[in-house]
């Protein structure tokens, strides 16, 4: 299997290379550059030109690309013009927030989806099952930003159960116990939106898996040996059906990343999605390119992770 | 004589229902799907009629500060926004714009995806290999971010650009599906028989294989349409869809980005948000009904 993993990783390299080329060329075509914002009637055009020259913006694009990719490989993501600091540090700080959000989202997602999927599969065609199927249909159809806004309006502003903006209240010392609690408190509502929207796949998979398993030989054998149905479910079926759910983790990562752009904008949460939107608006190329590359890399990693987990838990599936 | 008529009769009874009969039966059985389908058609017709023949866009978008945030009432059914512009009119025109874009994207990606998918699946070989590698690439890249970057790059930006950019990233799903189906169809006996008779490849592809895929194509197109409504409104919401002065469902929802509007002037954003919600549910529901109709195992009627 390690051979295939290495091969998959090697395939990732040309993909990332093409992505980097596209992103870089697009960023170069963006109207304006980080220095156009500095132009005021008082500034000397020569000074701006000098800044551009110094930043290497007047070189041909392929030279700039080569320089950028060279730095990128060495782990130097460049410098953000709007924030005047290294892109690596900037993204690192925001990435931590997005990581927290994703972690809480994934936990909530599985906490909601697994019991619902199990119940729907066990009592299929009952009222309960129909309700769960309806719920998973609705959560599939709702766009992220609509549900996010409705929740923000309802739970944030009307009921005031949760804070409406930011990742932590001002005035708390980082690292203290109340700081962590406050951080989690800020996370719950956006993570809940994520979780509600992400449950569809897990519920549907688990449900159909359990329904299929009911008719399989090993379940019939267990029943004929006199094992009560309750035990057949908890010991035999669930164990078989739950494992493949682990493979959804990789896809969830991809979904979380594209969703973070919406969720973080709505909830004013300072993560990578929000950073992306704000840097597009301020034409901060180095941040945009770095973020797209990072998201592309993480998405590739997610799908690889899914395939690996899948082949571990289900030996019938072999990744070629 | 008698036995002949009997034969004819039994033939009639045992002949499997054709595509449209199956769909029709499915909708008769599932009243909610029927209601969804009828309301989608009615709403779309109403919105297009109003936007093209009744509402004057210049009149609608004229700022009148006297009516700033006017509450829903007699003058404005759904109130007015920051510039005193009628929300109901904007909702109608916005819905038209959003639906128009979603329809255009669905048609473009549908035609492209079907043609490329059929060709790849039928011929295989290096074309198939190349296209599949391209699709693999498109599936793994963060497309939402790239769409946003694309949109900011284009200097004179119109709704046609938006349609093309969304289509550029939206053709992969249907292509992959059509390809896999065409691949399995092209191994069937009827295709081989037709080949032996010397039928032209393109006649086989479009006259013989494609009709056999019609049911999944209907399902996929409906679900794609729902997805495209979601993408367009989402982009407009973030500020990277239609320009802010063009009414769009997403732009209306984006009023909610101002916390004060979100809290106090709910009529600015809530109607558009609910409209998107209901449209998405209805279109997806119809898509599910089509899917059930296309799959004999899940059929209700």
UniProtKB/TrEMBL annotation, chain A:
It is found in: Cell membrane. It holds the Pfam family BPD_transp_1_N. Keywords: Cell membrane, Membrane, Transmembrane, Transmembrane helix, Transport. PROSITE patterns: ABC_TM1. Belongs to the binding-protein-dependent transport system permease family. One of its GO terms (cellular component) is plasma membrane. It is a multi-pass membrane protein. InterPro entries: BPD_transp_1_N, MetI-like, MetI-like_sf. It comes from the Bacteria. The chain crosses the membrane at residues 9-27, 99-120, 132-155, 184-206, 242-267, 287-313. SUPFAM superfamilies: MetI-like. This is Peptide/nickel transport system permease protein. Residues 95-306 form the ABC transmembrane type-1 domain. GO terms for biological process: transmembrane transport. Its main location: membrane. The keyword S-adenosyl-L-methionine does not apply. It comes from Ureibacillus acetophenoni.
From TrEMBL, chain B:
Keywords: Cell membrane, Membrane, Transmembrane, Transmembrane helix, Transport. GO terms for biological process: transmembrane transport. It comes from the Bacteria. It is a multi-pass membrane protein. Residues 95-287 form the ABC transmembrane type-1 domain. GO terms for cellular component: plasma membrane. InterPro entries: BP-dependent_transpt_permease, MetI-like, MetI-like_sf. The chain crosses the membrane at residues 32-55, 101-123, 135-154, 160-178, 266-287. The keyword Zinc-finger does not apply. It is found in: Cell membrane. The keyword Cell membrane applies. Belongs to the binding-protein-dependent transport system permease family. This is Peptide/nickel transport system permease protein. It comes from Ureibacillus acetophenoni.
């Amino acid at each position: 299997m390690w051979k295939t993993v290495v091969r998959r990783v090697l395939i990732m390299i040309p993909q990332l290379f093409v992505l980097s080329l596209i992103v870089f060329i697009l960023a170069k075509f963006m109207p304006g550059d980080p220095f156009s914002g500095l132009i005021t009637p008082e500034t000397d055009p020569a000074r701006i030109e000098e800044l551009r020259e110094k930043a290497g913006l007047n070189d041909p694009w392929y030279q700039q690309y080569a320089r950028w990719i060279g730095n990128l490989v060495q782990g130097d993501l460049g410098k953000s013009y709007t924030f005047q600091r290294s892109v690596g540090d900037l993204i690192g700080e925001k990435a931590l927030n997005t990581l927290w959000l994703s972690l809480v989202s994934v936990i909530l997602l599985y906490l909601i989806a697994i019991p619902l999927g199990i119940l729907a599969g066990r009592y299929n065609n009952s009222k309960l099952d129909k309700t769960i199927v309806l719920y998973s249909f609705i959560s599939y159809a709702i766009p992220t930003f609509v549900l996010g806004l409705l929740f923000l309006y309802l739970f944030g502003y009307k009921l005031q159960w949760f804070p409406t903006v930011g990742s932590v209240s001002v005035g708390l010392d980082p690292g203290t116990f109340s700081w962590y609690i406050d951080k989690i408190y800020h996370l719950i509502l956006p993570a809940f939106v994520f979780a509600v929207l992400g449950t569809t796949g897990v519920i549907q998979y688990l449900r159909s898996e359990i329904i299929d398993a009911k008719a399989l030989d090993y379940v019939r054998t267990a029943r004929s040996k006199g094992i009560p149905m309750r035990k057949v479910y908890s010991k035999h079926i669930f164990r078989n059906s739950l494992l493949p759910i682990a493979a959804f983790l990789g896809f969830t990562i991809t979904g979380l990343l594209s969703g973070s752009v919406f969720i973080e904008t709505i909830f004013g949460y300072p993560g990578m999605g929000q950073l992306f939107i704000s840097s597009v608006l301020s034409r901060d190329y180095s941040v945009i390119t770095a973020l797209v590359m990072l998201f592309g890399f993480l998405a590739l990693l997610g799908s690889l992770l899914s395939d690996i987990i899948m082949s571990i838990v289900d030996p019938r599936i072999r990744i070629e | 004589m008698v036995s002949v008529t009997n034969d004819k009769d039994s033939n009639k009874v045992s002949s499997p229902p054709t595509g449209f009969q199956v769909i029709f039966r499915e909708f008769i059985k599932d009243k909610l799907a029927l209601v969804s389908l009828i309301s989608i058609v009615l709403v779309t017709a109403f919105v297009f009629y109003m936007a093209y023949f009744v509402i004057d866009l210049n009149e609608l978008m004229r700022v009148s500060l006297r009516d700033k945030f006017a509450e829903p009432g007699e003058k404005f059914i759904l109130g007015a926004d920051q510039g005193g512009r009628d929300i109901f009119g904007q909702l109608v025109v916005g819905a038209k714009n959003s639906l128009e874009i979603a329809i255009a994207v669905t048609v473009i990606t549908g035609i492209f995806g079907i043609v490329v998918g059929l060709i790849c699946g039928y011929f295989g070989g290096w074309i198939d290999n190349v296209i599949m590698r391209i699709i693999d690439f498109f599936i793994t890249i963060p497309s939402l971010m790239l769409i946003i970057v694309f949109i900011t790059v284009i200097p004179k930006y119109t709704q046609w650009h938006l349609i093309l950019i969304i289509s550029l990233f939206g053709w992969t799903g249907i292509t992959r599906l059509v390809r896999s189906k065409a691949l399995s169809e092209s191994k069937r006996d009827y295709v081989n028989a037709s080949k032996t008779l010397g039928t032209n490849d393109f006649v086989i592809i479009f006259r013989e294989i494609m009709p056999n895929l019609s049911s999944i194509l209907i399902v996929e197109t409906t679900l794609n349409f729902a997805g495209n409504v979601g993408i367009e409104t989402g982009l407009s919401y973030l500020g990277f869809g239609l320009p802010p002065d063009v009414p769009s469902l997403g732009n209306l929802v984006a009023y909610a980005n101002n916390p004060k509007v979100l809290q106090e002037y709910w009529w600015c954003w809530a109607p558009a948000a609910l409209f998107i919600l209901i449209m998405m549910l209805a279109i997806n529901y119809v898509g599910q009904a089509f899917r059930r109709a296309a799959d004999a195992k899940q059929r209700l009627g």
